[in-house]
Amino acid sequence: MTTSGRPRPLLVVNAHREFEPDDAALVAAARAGDGAAFSRLFRRHADAVRTRLTRLVGPVAERVGLVQNVFIALHRALPVYRSEANVSTYLHRIAVNAAYDHLRARRRRGDGARPSNVDQLVDVASPALEDQVAARADLARLLALLDQLTPKKRIAFVLVAVEGCSLAEAAALIGAAEDTVKQRVLHARRELLARLAPAPPVGEAS
Description:
Blueprint: E1 2-3, E2 6-7, H1 23-31, H2 35-57, H3 63-77, H4 87-109, H5 129-146, H6 151-162, H7 167-174, H8 178-196
Antiparallel strand pairs: 1-2
Helix pairs in contact: 1-2, 2-3, 2-4, 3-4, 6-7, 6-8, 7-8
């Protein structure tokens, strides 16, 4: 439709998009006492922290408390936090330390992981019941094997062999030299392979 021979302009609706501050801005605001800014940081990074903790310690119920502890530690560190540091990396360093402390305490008590929901770590493409059962059984066995590693070896192995971190990335998260991380991964892999090897037939000479 035209008006006075001129085309009628189309109605343009500009969707309102909320301004999303970056992590550095949220940290600065949180340091100044803005609780909403810190809550926003939590919502932005909590899922990633929870996922990493799940891989490191297993799908145990304690992960909820560990995630909270990671962000409590971040909040306490705000006064001395260097603004040029990456918040995500800093959070995951805290998460790795929290996982190490949790695994060490669990090992000291002599109890293994008590998975609250193994399904959270299982990605089964086939809907067949037998495939799902097999996947859960394999994961349960893997978690049991990981529980036999020392916390340092387990964390290094999971970061490098499971998550695919480079030695440099894993070393930065752990706070150790690359060669140290490499040796831990090698020792962990060797121990896991030894435990996965079939037992010799009964009566066979050793």
